[in-house]
Design brief:
Blueprint (H helix, E strand, L loop, with lengths): L2 E5 L7 E2 L13 E7 L2 E7 H13 L1 E4 L5 H4 L11 E4 L4 E4 L2 E2 L1 H11 L5 H11 L5 E7 L3 E6 L8 H10 L3 E6 L2 E6 L4 H12 L3 E5 L6 H6 L2 E4 L4 H5 L6 E3 L4 H18 L4
Parallel strand pairs: 1-5, 1-13, 13-14, 14-15
Antiparallel strand pairs: 2-4, 3-4, 6-7, 7-8, 9-10, 10-12, 11-12
Helix pairs in contact: 1-9
């Protein structure tokens, strides 16, 4: 039984200090999985870390993130360097840490199915007001995102930008302080499907928290999302996809435990 464990990173497996959401009376041991500018910046509970190490021994653990490769390189999972990793929301497939050029050519083709990035970029520059926009970023010439002061973003802005983007074949996702605008053909599920094809996977298990993870959860044979984030807030449901009963870093631990239970039930361990 060949099983892929495809997991989103931020706010699914790993958590910044601001996203830990730990109750004052709950102080689990934490494992640092990312350092940025000299400081520890992302964490898992130690229990989650141990479960992930075990999972990597019995399944193909594939990190699947909207981070660009340079941001992904800052993350060191306790399970070690994965054979496959997916960055840029499916736009980059890393094999043993090296960008797969065959996949890059595939992505270049599908990106032609949506409006070109320069059009989206110019519009974001025009509508993202400096009063609440901290940065605008181009992600590998595939998509873009704005870093915003979320509390100050006008209530109707997200509705307007989502409708504008949809008319051009793009999607939006507001995750923490980042507003992503991503071409609809650029998906995590397509990249995970490619990995599944290459390894001859029998089963795909998946986890994610944002609207950009929905296609991944729909692809999976079984999936789970934390009880926080865009998926929970949207009310989206799908047969075969569960929700944790917890939020924050505890949800990350529960997701790792769920993966382990699924692998054991499937008889791969």
């Amino acid at each position: 039984m060949r099983i892929i464990v495809a997991a989103d990173l931020d706010r699914t497996l790993i958590y910044s200090r601001a996203a830990l959401a730990l109750a004052p009376e709950v102080v689990p041991d934490l494992a640092c999985v990312e350092r940025y500018e000299g400081s520890d910046s992302s964490f898992m509970t130690m229990t989650a870390a141990r479960l992930l190490v075990w999972l990597a021994q019995v399944a193909e653990v594939v990190p699947v993130t909207t981070r660009i490769p340079a941001q992904l390189q800052r993350v060191t999972l306790p399970s070690g360097s994965p054979r496959f990793a997916i960055a840029a929301n499916g736009g980059v497939l890393l094999v043993d840490g090296v960008i797969d050029q065959d996949w890059q050519r595939t992505v270049t083709g599908v990106l032609r199915l949506a409006a070109p990035l320069p059009e989206i970029w110019l519009h974001l520059q025009a509508v993202c007001e400096p009063d609440w926009t901290l940065k605008l970023r181009n992600a590998e010439d595939m998509f873009c995102y704005a870093v915003v002061r979320r509390a100050d973003v006008p209530e109707d802005f997200l509705v307007e930008i989502t409708a504008w983007a949809a008319a051009r074949g793009w999607s939006t996702s507001l995750q923490g302080s980042k507003l992503y605008v991503v071409p609809r053909p650029l998906t995590k599920s397509a990249a995970v499907g490619e990995v599944a094809r290459r390894v001859g996977a029998d089963v795909v298990l998946a986890a994610g928290d944002s609207l950009l993870d929905i296609d991944l959860l729909e692809l999976a044979d079984r999936g789970i999302h934390p009880a926080h984030g865009e998926i929970t807030e949207s009310g989206w449901t799908c047969a075969g996809v569960e929700s944790t009963g917890s939020v924050g870093a505890q949800a990350g631990e529960d997701i790792c435990r769920w993966f382990a239970e699924q692998v054991k039930e499937l008889g791969a361990a």
